[in-house]
Design a protein that fits this description.
Elements: H1 2-17, H2 28-170
Helix pairs in contact: 1-2
């Protein structure tokens, strides 16, 4: 914008100076038109140069930022690779442990069912054992009573027989 104003000022000065002269080749209007054309071309060229300079500056800035972005992309890719390397062994170990847990669960299920079955059988066998033990105890008690009663009866019988024998031996 500064260039445009200064060029207009120059054009105005040229108008104020007047024509070159009547004997000159160009009339004042032609001279003025030519100067305006030169000034316009000069202004256009300076603007084109300024645009080109700014274009180069912007291109350099863009290339610099692209370079930084590419460097950051490379850094991020490297960091990503490092993270994957860190995660990979953990993933493998976790997968192995999970697989072992699944195998253990698969093995535990029938063992648990077998344990429950055996525990039920044990309880039933223990119950049957306790019942038979009670029955045996009752039978042993009954046997002792019977033996005691039998012994008592035999003793009574023996005493009777002894009395009979004594009474027979006293009678001659």
């Amino acid at each position: 914008m500064g260039l445009v104003c200064s060029n207009k000022d120059q054009m105005q000065k040229m108008k104020n100076h007047g024509s070159i002269g009547s004997s000159g080749r160009l009339s004042a209007e032609e001279y003025e038109d030519e100067e305006i054309s030169k000034l316009a071309i000069s202004t256009f060229q300076s603007k084109a140069e300024e645009i080109e300079r700014k274009k180069v500056e912007v291109r350099e800035k863009v290339e610099l930022q692209l370079g930084r972005a590419e460097e950051e992309t490379r850094r991020l890719a490297h960091i990503w690779e490092e993270l994957e390397v860190l995660e990979d062994p953990m993933r493998k170990e976790v997968a192995m442990v999970r697989k072992k847990i699944d195998l253990a669960n698969r093995d535990l299920k029938p063992l648990g069912l077998n344990h429950q079955k055996k525990e039920k059988e044990y309880k039933e066998a223990l119950e049957a054992f306790n019942e038979k033990n009670k029955e045996k105890a009752h039978l042993v008690a009954t046997l002792i009573e019977l033996l005691t009663e039998s012994e008592r009866l035999r003793m009574n019988k023996l005493e009777e027989l002894c009395k009979i024998i004594e009474s027979m031996s006293l009678k001659p």
